Amino acid sequence: METADEDLAQAARDGDRPAFAALVARHYDRIHALSFRLTGQRSEAEDLTQDICLALPAKLGSYRAEARFTTWLYRVTVNAAHDRRRRAASHARAAGGWGDWEVNRRAAMAEETQAQDWLTRTMRQLPPELRDTVALTLGEELSQKDAAEVLGVSEGTIAWRMSEVKKRLRTIARAEDML
Predict the structure, then answer these.
(1) I need a surface site. Which of 38, 74, 97, 126 has the fewest CB within 10 A?
(2) How far is Cα 51 from Cα 144, in angstroms, rounded to an integer?
(3) Contacts 24+ apart (CB under 8 A), 49-55
(4) CA gap 100, 114 in Å, rounded
């Protein structure tokens, strides 16, 4: 005579490994079939079935034999499928949010690169003394006083040159419809 599922479940809950093995052997195909119907994909059903079998020893602690074992096992399977769907949805939302962040990051980088390219190209149009002044004050972050010393001109000349650079850059930007 075959041992009832409920008796095997009670024994498995108490640590009887052969009873647990008998339960899994008896119901593995049933869990897999329901998992397949719930997920619609063979690989998902296999993963879900494995997850359920791995969690089953701990889950047996909640089995109270108030319903048939198969009813309880179906409930465990359905809950596991729902949990898997919720996790997948959370991951998809997180991935979507990350994707939006990455798209925005790349757009900002492209915009910055485009601005740098424009500035580099436009700087070539300036006379050498203005380029030298910009290279020292903005590129090397020297004070106007230090830049004046390096270039052998007065601090006022550096201030005038920077004003002239700004004026010329604005004029070029307007001509190119950038402002």
Answers:
(1) 97
(2) 69
(3) 51/80, 51/84, 52/76, 52/77, 52/80, 53/24, 53/28, 55/80
(4) 21
> pLDDT by residue for the chain (179 residues), tens digit each?
788 989 999 999 999 999 999 999 999 999 999 999 988 889 999 999 999 999 999 999 888 888 889 889 999 999 999 999 888 887 777 666 666 777 788 888 998 898 888 888 888 888 988 888 888 888 888 899 988 888 899 999 999 999 999 999 899 888 888 76
Is 39 in contact with 81 (CB distance < 8 Å)?
yes
SS (H, E, C) the chain: CCCCHHHHHHHHHCCCHHHHHHHHHHHHHHHHHHHHHHHCCHHHHHHHHHHHHHHHHHHHHHCCCCCCHHHHHHHHHHHHHHHHHHHHHHHHHHHHHHHHHHHHHHHHHHHHHHHHHHHHHHHCCCCHHHHHHHHHHHHCCCCHHHHHHHHCCCHHHHHHHHHHHHHHHHHHHHHCCCC
d(CA 150, CA 28) in angstroms, rounded, equals 82
Q: Are 132 and 162 in contact (CB under 8 A)?
A: no
Structure tokens at 95: 């991935």
